[in-house]
């Protein structure tokens, strides 16, 4: 994580850890001991609105968020947990 967010480092870490653990359990995929989740800010501090996206990489996930995003479900979309769970 880089920068300040609308949620704590601990809240994000707990969510990411839970999603990775559930995915590993569901697919019985314990072959790799580590899985990297990065959180990268996009846009400017003054930008209005919110945006989020991400990409699955080899044993990792890069998450891109505007700084005002929360971990709550987003109107018209599933939110951060849905995004991570779908790709992680």
Descriptive account of the structure:
With 88 residues, this protein is an alpha+beta fold. The chain has one domain (9-87). The protein is 32% helix and 20% strand. The protein has two helices and three strands, in the order αβββα. It has a three-stranded mixed sheet, with helices on one face. Strand 2 and strand 3 form a beta hairpin. The radius of gyration is 13 Å and the shape is elongated. The two termini are 17 Å apart. The model has no long low-confidence stretch (mean pLDDT 82).
End-to-end C-alpha gap: 17 Å
Strand content: 15-25%
Average pLDDT, all residues: 82
Structural class: alpha+beta
> What is the count of helical runs?
2
Q: Give, in order, the helices and strands.
A: HEEEH
Which word captures the global form? elongated
Largest sheet: 3 strands, mixed
Summarize the structure.
Helices cover 32% and strands 20% of the residues.
């Amino acid at each position: 994580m880089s920068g300040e967010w609308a949620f704590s480092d601990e809240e994000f870490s707990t969510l990411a850890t839970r999603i990775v653990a559930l995915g590993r359990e569901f697919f019985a995929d314990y072959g790799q001991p580590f899985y990297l989740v990065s959180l990268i800010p996009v846009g400017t501090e003054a930008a209005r609105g919110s945006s989020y996206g991400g990409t699955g990489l080899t044993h990792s996930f890069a998450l891109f968020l505007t700084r005002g995003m929360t971990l709550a479900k987003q109107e018209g979309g599933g939110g951060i947990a849905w995004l991570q769970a779908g790709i992680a």
